[in-house]
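>> received
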Amino acid sequence: EEQLVESGGGLVQIGGSLRLSCAASGFTFRDYAVAWFRQAPGKEREGISCINSKNGNTDYTDPVKGRFTMSTDSSMDTVYLQMDNLRPEDTAVYYCAATFDPWTHCSSTESYTRQYDYWGQGTQVTVSS
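>> returned
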């Protein structure tokens, strides 16, 4: 069965760091469009990061730019989201998403509004003072 499994969330203090993982089961991220989203309480889900699995290029939305880093492992079956200098407004459930698309480009104009076929179950990140 093809699925995404996330891990790494938790409770962290302001300024702290967490690394989220998203493991693909039944496929690898090669030739897949991959992105991270988050949904805070009472807010709509928002895209925050994507990666081009072919060349490693990444994109980040303004709220996380300069603090979050998305990457993949060499086997391309896991993607990571390194989150540094966390703020209370980063508190949310974080989701990874993927869909098969060999022609995909990671870009702010496409990656956060397109349809994704696979979603992880979500992992809670809470930033407290």
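>> The chain has a mean pLDDT of 95.
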